[in-house]
Each structure stands twice: as C-alpha cells, then as structure tokens.
Write a structure and sequence with these properties.
Radius of gyration: 18 Å
Distance between the termini: 16 Å
Shape: globular
Order of helices and strands: HHHHHH
Largest sheet: none
C-alpha cells in the first residue's frame, strides 16, 4: 500500500502505449476464440475440425486462460509494472515459437505471417533495443 502512495509518476513511452493496446486487442481476440471453441464444442463439435467435444472444451479453456493472461500483461504495460516488461518479452517469444509451428501446416495465410511473426518480432526489437523502454519500467 505504501509503495503505491509514494510512487513517482513515470511517463509511458508512446511505443509501450501502442504495444499495450495491441496486446489488449490480442487478448480480446483470444477470449473470443475461446468462446467460439467452447460454444462449438458444447453444440456438438460443429465448429471444430475434430468433432471431439473434449478437445473443443480443452482448447477453449486454454485459449481463455491465454487471453486473460494477455489482457493482464496489457494492463501491466499500461501501468508500467516492472514484471510486465519481461512477461511481454516471454509472451512474444512464445508467439514467435508458435508461429514457427504454424508455418509447418499446409494452410498458412497472410494473417499468420503478419500476426504471428512480424508483430512479435517488432515488439521484441523495440523492447530490447530502445533504451527509453527499459528506463520506463525501472522504478
């Protein structure tokens, strides 16, 4: 409680603001995907490539968890929490690794390349190369 009362207000870099908004959009999208999978599974697997209800429910729950964690990271970036810097770096690395797997699948579109590779790569480069970003997260 005392930590927040005496905290010096810091200026959030514009790039961090943009990344926080982007992460928020990504988190909302992931939660919507989770709802889609859960409804698809509960309505008999009509939206799934495997008609297994269990797979749909598990996928929906995992997507919901990842979406909520992403929204929490976006809030951490917005409020310049120290942990949010490294949490976002780890999340972007995991997104890049997931995109490598997607490239091995037969159907890859332009959105896979844009959303799965370019955005996380730009975020990582910005977070690791811009000195003002690290300073903003140091209290």
């Amino acid at each position: 409680m005392l930590d927040t009362m005496f905290e010096v207000s810091r200026k959030r870099p514009t790039g961090v603001t943009a990344i926080a908004v982007l992460l928020c959009i990504q988190g909302i999208f992931r939660v919507l995907v989770a709802v889609f999978f859960l409804f698809g599974a509960l309505l008999g697997g009509w939206a799934l490539t495997t008609s297994s209800v269990v797979v749909g429910v598990i996928t929906g729950i995992l997507a919901a968890i990842v979406g909520m964690v992403t929204l929490y990271f976006a809030w951490g970036l917005w409020t310049l929490k120290r942990w949010a810097y490294w949490a976002t770096v780890i999340l972007m690395v995991l997104d890049l690794l997931g995109s490598v797997f997607e490239f091995t699948q037969p159907i890859t579109g332009i959105w896979t390349i844009w959303g799965g590779v370019i955005i996380p790569a730009v975020v990582l480069i910005y977070f690791l190369a811009a000195s003002g970003v690290r300073k903003a997260f140091q209290a």
